[in-house]
């Protein structure tokens, strides 16, 4: 076989492999929309579940996921951006910094269910928060932290060095330079990273299993010390724990979850595109 | 206006890539005292990651080690997991995790590297514009949604076409996990391919090789350390996945020995924690043992990540043009 036929054959294989990866992704999205769209109605997304979740809507689960996502944002964003600033602007190249980086990589690699265990041990039991929105948000925030740190650091490092040099040469202090030059220019990248981190948190089930999620609670939470339903856990419950669950409701719930999560994904992509086009460097 | 700015940028970028020591000192003296508090806060944020890793580990130990009062390490290393009878042997769960993860990597690795090669080397611009967001979408699909589809769509197919008595098998878990690990593998492999110096490629092509020969004989070997890292982090991603495996693997805590284990139900460490923690009494032996399983999971992923990050440090990408200097 000549090397060119060889190449054609190899490229065909590589293309085929890519199709094997991509086609199921499209299938998943299309199939869930196709099966789930019929059950979506205004009532479905704005009313309480009834008849042991076999009828009615999924409002408390939607609200729960939104609340938890906000809680996660509050817990993870300031800390994450602070750590990113430290790593990008302050940290020296020494053993301590390498230790911090190793810790971040490890934090990102800890299985989500272990975060759940930790949240149960520390927040729910040791700190006495009980299974609550507070405990769940803190657990999810911790899980999101490494994502926020690494994407924010990347965004800060992408700001050209010349911006800093000019700011300092005009008499700006280090913090003024960071505050007025580096952060504003890194903001689009930081926002993109934060949204992608929150997207992951919104779809997680294992960390909220023992820290916040309620099996069936047809009312809205009153305070951050309440339990709440959440979409991912609700989907798990109705697909595996409730006998005689109408299949249409299962697909519709999956669709709502997918739409929430993927719209965050699309928002992040659009923000990134928009600012990449506008940026001057 | 724009041109001037670009010119400044370029000249600055070239000559001032790094501040010289004297300039750094000058920059330091220009700090103000009232900025010290905010810098202290940033420093604390910086150290937080180390703090959290330590706290997580200490809390797992605090809740897990008491299990050893009632379950000896020897028992914990046993071959049977029957919590109702007070028998807590982790081996079936550990092997379950290993079997499912191994299957996932065997499926995901060739697909992932091929996709990375396609995206980086072969795909025309428009295809890349479609592929990259699609792969990001895959990374964003919640695991519980994939598990749900796995239950309803994939496992019936396995039962029908592969002759397994039930579709809820280790193979189903491997298949779903492979797709969950793919975004990680693809993006790291693509980074690795991207960081191969252009001079390698040019040198190879100049010798008259075809594009494919260059990819296979030069680029992939040069990207080796990155690809090994993709494997490791893919394993880390797969072994820690919980909801999907819990929903599609059937959760039978039996010893998965032999190849036919892939076509039987299996139970992983993650699924065991998730399924049983909700039902145990806080402070019971079972409760503490589940934390012990969590410690094993923590240590396994910790080890994988430490090794992977040493690969990053050792295999720092050699940027283009170095051969000319």
Report what the structure shows:
The complex is a heterodimer of chains A (281) and B (325). In chain A, 75% of the residues lie in helices and 1% in strands. Chain A is an all-alpha fold and 281 residues long. Chain A has a single domain (55-278), classed as MetI-like fold. A two-stranded antiparallel sheet of chain A has the order 1-2. The longest helix of chain A has 34 residues, at 3-36. Chain A is globular and about 70 Å long. The mean pLDDT of chain A is 91. By secondary structure, chain B is mainly alpha-helical. Chain B has one domain: Orthogonal Bundle (MetI-like fold), CATH 1.10.3720. In chain B, 72% of the residues lie in helices and 1% in strands. A two-stranded antiparallel ribbon of chain B has the order 1-2. In chain B, a hairpin with a 4-residue loop joins strand 1 (81-82) and strand 2. In chain B, helix 7 packs across helix 9 (170-194) and helix 14 runs antiparallel to helix 15. Chain B is globular, with a radius of gyration of 25 Å. The model of chain B is unreliable at 1-17 and 317-325 (pLDDT under 50).
List the helices and strands and how they pair.
The complex is a heterodimer of chains A (281) and B (325).
Chain A: H1 3-36, H2 42-46, E1 49-50, E2 55-56, H3 59-90, H4 95-109, H5 112-126, H6 133-157, H7 161-169, H8 174-203, H9 206-209, H10 231-240, H11 247-278
Helix pairs in contact in A: 1-11, 3-6, 3-8, 4-6, 5-6, 6-8, 7-8, 8-11, 10-11
Chain B: H1 2-15, H2 21-29, H3 36-64, H4 67-70, H5 73-76, E1 81-82, E2 87-88, H6 91-122, H7 125-140, H8 143-161, H9 170-194, H10 198-206, H11 211-222, H12 224-240, H13 243-248, H14 269-277, H15 285-314
Antiparallel strand pairs in B: 1-2
Helix pairs in contact in B: 3-15, 6-9, 6-12, 7-9, 8-9, 9-12, 10-11, 12-15, 14-15
